[in-house]
Amino acid sequence: MTKAPADFAARIDALFQDFTGPDSPGAVVAVTENGREIFANTYGLANINNSVPMGRKTIIRIGSQTKQFTVLLILMLEAEGKLNLSDEVQKHLPYVPRLEQPVTLEHLASNTSGFRDHLEAMIFAGLSIFTPSDRQTGRDVIARQDALNFKPGSAMTYCNAGFFMLSEIIEQIEGATFNEVLRKRITGPLGMDDTSLLIRDGSAMKRLAAHYTKREEGWANLNWGLDLGGEGGMISTLDDMIVWQQNLFAPKVGTAEMYERMGTPCVFDNGATGFYGLGLVTDVYRGRRAVGHGGTVAGGKSESTRFVDDGFGVVIIANNDQVASFALGRRIADIYFGDKAPAPIALAPGRYRQEGGPDVFEIVARDGVATFLNAGGVGGFDFGHAGGAKPERAITDLVLSPRADGKVEGVFCGTPRIYAPLQADAAAARPLAGRYVNKAQDLEVEVTGDASKGEFRLRSGLGAMSAPIVAADADLWFLLQPGTDMRPGLPWNATLAVTADGFEMNSDRIKKLAFKRA
C-alpha cells in the first residue's frame, strides 16, 4: 500500500493545470515508490499544429540529464582500465589548453574544473546559439580559452564544456560515436529503445515532440543551431526514463558502486561539501537525501529526482521551457511526504553586490515572498535549507541569510561572502567608452556612452553582437541583452568590472574574461 495521500493524483494534476489547454504544449510525469509506479499522467500537446497529445511514448529532449549517462560511460571505461578519472584532460584531448592549474577528468565530471562554459563563450563571442555550428566550433572555442574561472577543485560552476570533452574522450577511446557506445553499453541492455542522442534540433523522427517557447503572441517552435553531444543532446520517453531511474535504484547496467560515486557530493579544497557529485546533483531536501539531474534545452525542460533512502522517485519531461521542472519535482515530494513549506526568510528586495567582487543578484518580492534572480535565471527559494535560503535551482552552491545592517551573508562553495545593497540609478566613476581587445580569443569591443549608460559592440571571428550597458556601481556595469539565447527575459546577462587597463566580463558560467584597452 502506498504512503501517498488519498488526493495525491489530484494535487499533482493541479500543479500542471496550466499545460492542459487545447493549444498548449505540455509534460509527462511519473512517480515511483520502491520500484512501483504510483502515479503517471500526460498533459498538453506534443505537437500543437496537428493536435497530437503528449503520451508515455512521446519522444522529448531531456537536455542535461544526458550528463549522467556520459559519466556512467566514463566510469565503465575506467573500470576496464581504459582511462582514469585522475588523468589530466590533455592526455586524451591535446587541443585543450593547459591553463593556470592541471584539470582532471574528475574535475570535468563534477563541474569543478574552472573551465568556462563553451556555449556561453560562443554567445559572448557573437555566435547565436540559433546559428548553425558544428562540434569543431565547440572544440575551437574551448581551445581558445585563456584562463580558468577558478582554481580546479576550489568551487563549482556549471560547465557544459566539461561534458563536451568527456563525450569526445568516450568516442576517441571506443572508436565509435557517442550514440553507438550509449546503445551498446546502456540503453540497449536496458531496453530503452526510444532513448538516444539527437545531435541536431529540427531532425525528423516518428513520435518526436515539437519543442516550444512562450512569446507575447503565443507559443512558438524553438530550435538551437548547434550540434549537441554528451553534454545535453539526448532524447527519451516517460517509459524509458522510468526504466533508467529504477536502474539507478537497483542496477542492471552499471554497478551500485558507480552510482554511489556519482551521487556523492564533491568536496572543495576548503573542506566544504558541495551540491554536485559526478554527473548528478546531490542535496538534502527537508532532511532527506535527494539525488538527480535536470535539463534545459531549446523548448524543453526535464527533471529526474530520487530520494535515495526513501525509495521515492519523480520523473518530469516537458516539451516547453515554461515548466519549472526542478521546483515541481520538489512540490510533488512535498505532497508525498506531507511536508509543509517552511516560513519565508525575510530577504529585503533589491540588488546586491558581492563585497570585493563582481557578482550581483536581485531579490524580488512576488506575492510577498522573496524570489532570486541573477544572470543564471530566476526562481524561488528553498527556505528550509541548512544555513539559510538556497535558490531553488538545481545547479547552485549559494546559500543566503539576511543581516541586521541590511547586507546579506552568503556562502558560496563553502566560502563566506558578504553582499551589500546597490543603489538605484547608479553612476560609474567614469565612462567605459573606448576600444578593447582580448587577443587570445580574437575578441574586439567598442564601447560608447557616458557614465550612466552606453552601447557595447563586440566582433570576433565567430560573429558580432551589440547590446546596451548601464552603470551598476562606480566600477561595475550591467550588460543587458547578450545571452538571451539561453536564458531569455533577464534584466542583465553579465557584468563588466572595471580594471586598471580595461574590464572583466562575468556571466553565470564565465568569469574573469579580460579585455584590455586597445
UniProtKB/TrEMBL annotation:
Residues 13-325 form the Beta-lactamase-related domain. It holds the Pfam family Beta-lactamase. InterPro entries: AmpC-like (IPR050491), Beta-lactam-related (IPR001466), Beta-lactam/transpept-like (IPR012338). Gene3D superfamilies: DD-peptidase/beta-lactamase superfamily (3.40.710.10). PANTHER family: BETA-LACTAMASE-RELATED DOMAIN-CONTAINING PROTEIN (PTHR46825:SF9), D-ALANYL-D-ALANINE-CARBOXYPEPTIDASE/ENDOPEPTIDASE AMPH (PTHR46825). This is Beta-lactamase family protein. It comes from Aminobacter anthyllidis.
